């Protein structure tokens, strides 16, 4: 397999910009998978939900900013449904997520009215997204020509900083601390008089709101929304999380919790760069899901293997080596 360094360098800005946008999705998955200790399957549907709502609103003449807010709100509703099924109807977390995700497929199709919605020619016959608005503003006011990737990195980077800051401050409040404690030790939290059901529902709402926001932003970047755009979202999110923990875990343990949140986004960017590398090496795109599964398996197995090696080394020293 040949590696074309020039083609890779040319693809790098696109990989980073896409990684920034999908980093918000990974951040939402992190809230449920690591903070709440729940594997939430809703994300596959809520990602497309945000994409669909944003695309339909923009093509109907609404602003791209208000479309992002609407996507976030609808994502929170999806998270509420999953949380209600899990906590109030006592369904297993995986089943609750699968049921919501399955229902969202039909709901998303209803919202779009067709399998995909294009933003290539939108309201007033011109592109109308935050990215194109920034490009136009840079050209009109500063006489700068921003590529779509540069504009995406600017807006996506600012949005990621804002979301990380808000989540960091929120998770440090009494309610946020209760959500984190619910994922760590729900029995202790209930003994302290905290309603863990409410904490789980709130956590799922915030998580899916952020995931839907990511889907909305991705639709503005890609200029279309597709009914199958969220397939494999959870797996990609998990892969990005374990990559972020593997590469930046040393710093996360020594810095504040905000870096842990930021490392999730950085892991997504690295994941997208890895994808760009393997595609340059000639790996068929159809094998990407297998590669993602392998990345997750290896990353999760490494700590266990390290523990086995340490235990073996300790027993070896205790027995006096080979004597």
Could you outline the blueprint of secondary structure elements for this entry?
Blueprint: H1 5-35, H2 43-59, H3 64-87, H4 93-112, E1 116-118, H5 130-141, H6 148-171, H7 174-184, H8 186-191, H9 196-222, E2 224-226, H10 233-254, H11 257-280, H12 288-318
Antiparallel strand pairs: 1-2
Would you mind describing this structure in some detail?
It is built from twelve helices and two strands. The protein is an all-alpha fold and 323 residues long. A two-stranded antiparallel ribbon has the order 1-2. The N and C termini lie far apart (48 Å).
Strand segment count: 2
* Largest sheet descriptor: 2 strands, antiparallel
Q: Give the overall shape.
A: globular
Number of DSSP helical runs: 12
Distance between the termini: 48 Å
Q: What's the average pLDDT?
A: 87
* Strand neighbour order, sheet with most strands: 1-2
Helix content: over 70%
Order of helices and strands: HHHHEHHHHHEHHH
Instruction: Return the structural class.
Output: mainly alpha
Rg (CA only):
21 Å
Low-confidence spans: pLDDT under 50, at least 5 residues?
A: none
Work out the strand percent: under 5%
List its traits:
about 75% helix; globular; about 0% strand; mainly alpha; single chain
Outline of the structure:
The chain contains 12 helices and 2 strands.
